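[Help] Beginner question about ligand-bound structures

Sorry if this is basic. My supervisor gave me a protein sequence and a SMILES string for flavin-adenine dinucleotide and asked me to "get the holo structure". I don't really know what that means in practice or what format the answer should be in. Inputs are pasted below exactly as I got them.
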Amino acid sequence: MLKTPEEFEASLRELHPTVYIKGNKVESVVDEPLLRPGVNAISVTYEYALLPEYKETMTAISHVTGRRVNRLLHINTSQDDLLKKLEMTRLLCRETGCAQRYLCHDALNALYENTNNTDLKYGTDYHVKFLNYLERVQDEDLTMCVAMTDAKGDRTKRPHEQHDPDLYLRIVDKNEDGIIVRGIKAIVTGAPYTHEIIVLPTRNMTFQDKDYAVSFAIPIDAPGIELVSRQAGRPGESGAPLTSRYGQATAQILFDDVFIPWDSVFLAGEWDFAGSLTESFATHHRVSCIGARAGLGDMLIGATAALAEANGLDPQKIGHVRNKIADLIKYVESFYACGVTAAVFGSETRAGNFIPDPIYSNIGKLLQGTHIYDMFRIVHDTSGGILVSSPYPEDMETPDIGERLNRYLQGREDIPTDYRISVARLLEDITASYQGGWYSVISISGGGSPEATRLEIMRKYDIEERKSLIEKITGV
Ligand SMILES: Cc1cc2nc3c(=O)[nH]c(=O)nc-3n(C[C@H](O)[C@H](O)[C@H](O)COP(=O)(O)OP(=O)(O)OC[C@H]3O[C@@H](n4cnc5c(N)ncnc54)[C@H](O)[C@@H]3O)c2cc1C
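Answer (accepted):
No worries, everyone starts somewhere. Holo just means with the ligand present. The predicted complex, written as structure tokens, is below.
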């Protein structure tokens, strides 16, 4: 059953995760002002799924149950599903900046594939357990955070080589009922205001790392789990039109010898399937990153053009402004086009679900992660200093002072000052505030560093085929 936003919040109230922010224990995540923008952003994924105009984009028929589910919990059964998921991500993120819940989709699809493949080699029963899990989260319309990134210690060393054995999450014990895990997952989006955690390995492993090859699901308030979170967005800031309303928290999740029943375990020691699970998740997730940043790009394009106009610089008439906005569009639509191509060239896995083409998924993510700075440069260059100097809303509303500011800060005669200032504040919010910095960091690092995507491109691209072409042309 699709939940309403109200039911989503009510379901969070039934959970009691241990969450700390700035040294304080959070009594209720739904009532915590510092987390409110995060709850709001995820609520939009519930709201949109119920709107008739978004039904096809936001929902799908589950091939497991035959029931309509939120597309963010759907297993892709075609290239069209891949495409719709990309469109959905853009749609959600042009409203919220970052809707976070797409991570669920990416992890569920990766687990669908990998549990099947692990069973084929090892005769395990992970896939059946996963299907039971999938059916439950689809039917209850849950939101899961995805905990992949480990603390990782010295980056040049494998998990078992680290000076402290707990720098990657690991299995410390197993018994007939389940496994016991210890360690930390270091950057987890939205964790405090989700229902469950899906844990994935963060890299490929060797036999010596087998205790680190672990994947499972666990309720967010399970015993032994503690979250150290940061605020979501810029709650309470009057000059933050987007991020006071919508934001994204990240949390460190500490696992202090946490028991996971076998029913919820999807990988436990099959070290040679850790890498494929990570890779499959990354391939799906990088397309999500593309869709998410295209949504942000929509805001940047619209606001940059609007502010230029308010400054009297018609983007269709003033040559350099036209060129800059055309470049902004070029960046956004070129990485989005890679997302489309990744979906269209998507293929069926051995498990029967569909995965985006990895080369275009990685190229799109690489373009998005590296061009974010070019995009912000264009915004800053085109907008001028008003971007960081517009008065606070309270000052604009102060009698006398406000009226004078309103008069002097007008740009083009037929465009109200209020409009000019509001657009400038939005651009400051998403490119030049604490959140602006945050958006550039999530763009470059979220979903994997540029180097990680380059490595994938070089691993997957058929350079030998290109070399054979040269032999054919030169004849040597
Ligand atoms: C806002 C935000 C939200 C995120 N949300 C989530 C989430 O929900 N779930 C999740 O699991 N993760 C999440 N991440 C984590 C993200 O996937 C990682 O940041 C990313 O994979 C990079 O890992 P890292 O931060 O540990 O950086 P590092 O791996 O330390 O990378 C830093 C630099 O070091 C380089 N480097 C790393 N290792 C080596 C090596 N062995 N040799 C040479 N160079 C190396 C990298 O290429 C990069 O240039 C999030 C990140 C951000 C910023």
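A couple of things worth pointing out: The mean pLDDT is 97. The chain has 16 helices and 14 strands. Feel free to follow up in the thread.
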